[in-house]
């Protein structure tokens, strides 16, 4: 079992109570105590868990402040590669037709679509409170929200896997981001986010991925969807020729903003 898969299982075990014992991890991971100690040490050094007597627990900030997602917070992400993200958001908005319904997944790049949607009279389903706030001043834009818990660091509404939380809504296009993308597909760091995005994908006729070129890298994570499920990727000119060819060979339309 790869390290990324072990980490995913560790966090799945932590989520119900915020604590998991070493004994439970030995059974769950089918790994040696030394391997489990190395995994927990790595996660503790990155601030994602705290090692305690008999096992590991989530940091106190998670216990006190409600559920959190793995990965970089929204506030950290919003300032990274802002120029390319703004260009990508504008190019994505240009794909929207007046009066249609669209789905916009939460993210710092999808947020950049919002200023360019005013006047189109769209109906937008989104799980992002940041996107809601950006769209509220647009009198002609109708906004729909799913049910679920608010994850404050991302300001996003998510429901656990297996729980139906979406309104009865079908859209021609889904605009979504990713923590990373490679030959294996689009990835996210947190399984809860993956489950929510899969529910959106199932309701869309066309999946449009908005990612700046820094996202084309090797990274451990859970695969949201393969390249065969992505119709269009909008990115910036920093994408490598090799990755551009990989996308095109997979039948993905590539738009350079």
Topology overview:
Blueprint: H1 3-14, E1 19-21, H2 22-29, H3 33-45, E2 50-52, E3 55-57, H4 60-65, H5 74-77, H6 82-93, E4 101-104, E5 123-126, H7 129-135, E6 142-144, E7 149-151, E8 156-158, E9 171-176, E10 180-182, E11 185-188, H8 191-201, E12 204-210, E13 222-225, E14 232-235, H9 241-249, E15 253-256
Parallel strand pairs: 4-5, 4-9, 5-6, 9-12, 12-14, 14-15
Antiparallel strand pairs: 1-3, 2-3, 7-8, 10-11, 11-13
Features:
257 residues, alpha/beta, Arc Repressor Mutant, subunit A, Rossmann fold, 2 domains, seven-stranded parallel β-sheet, three-stranded antiparallel β-sheet, 32% helix, globular
Structure explained in plain terms:
InterPro entries: Carb_Metab_HTH_regulators, DeoR-like_C, DeoR_HTH, NagB/RpiA_transferase-like, Tscrpt_reg_HTH_DeoR_CS, WH-like_DNA-bd_sf, WH_DNA-bd_sf. Keywords: DNA-binding, Transcription, Transcription regulation. Pfam families: DeoRC (PF00455), HTH_DeoR (PF08220). GO terms for molecular function: DNA binding; DNA-binding transcription factor activity. Residues 3-58 form the HTH deoR-type domain. This protein is of the alpha/beta class and 257 residues long. It folds into two domains: 3-65, Arc Repressor Mutant, subunit A; 74-256, Rossmann fold (3-Layer(aba) Sandwich). The chain is 32% helix and 23% strand. It contains nine helices and 15 strands. The strands form four sheets. A seven-stranded parallel beta sheet has the order 6-5-4-9-12-14-15, with helices on both faces. Strand 5, helix 7 and strand 6 (142-144) form a beta-alpha-beta unit. 33% of the residues are buried. The model has no long low-confidence stretch (mean pLDDT 86).
């Amino acid at each position: 079992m790869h390290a990324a898969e072990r980490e995913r299982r560790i966090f799945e075990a932590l989520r119900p109570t915020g604590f998991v014992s070493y004994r439970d991890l030995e059974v769950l991971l089918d790994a040696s105590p030394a391997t489990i100690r190395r995994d927990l040490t790595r996660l503790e050094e990155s601030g994602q868990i705290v090692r305690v007597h008999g096992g590991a627990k989530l940091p106190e900030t998670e216990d006190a402040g409600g559920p959190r997602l793995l990965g970089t917070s929204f506030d950290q992400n919003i300032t990274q590669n802002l120029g390319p993200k703004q260009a990508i958001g504008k190019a994505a908005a240009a794909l929207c037709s007046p009066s249609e319904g669209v789905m916009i997944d939460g993210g710092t790049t999808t947020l950049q679509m919002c200023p360019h949607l005013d006047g189109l009279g769209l109906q937008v389903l989104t799980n992002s409170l940041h996107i809601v706030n950006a769209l509220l001043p647009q009198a002609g834009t109708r906004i729909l929200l799913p049910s679920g818990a608010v994850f404050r660091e991302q300001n996003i509404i998510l429901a656990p896997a297996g729980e139906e939380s979406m309104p009865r809504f079908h859209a021609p296009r889904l605009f979504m981001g990713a923590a990373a993308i490679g030959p294996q597909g689009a990835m996210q760091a947190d399984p809860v986010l993956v489950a929510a995005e899969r529910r959106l994908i199932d309701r869309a006729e066309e999946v449009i991925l908005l990612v700046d070129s820094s996202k084309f890298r090797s990274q451990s994570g859970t695969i949201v969807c393969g390249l065969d499920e992505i119709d269009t990727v909008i990115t910036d000119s920093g994408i490598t020729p090799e990755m551009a060819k990989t996308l095109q060979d997979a039948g993905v339309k590539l738009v350079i903003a």
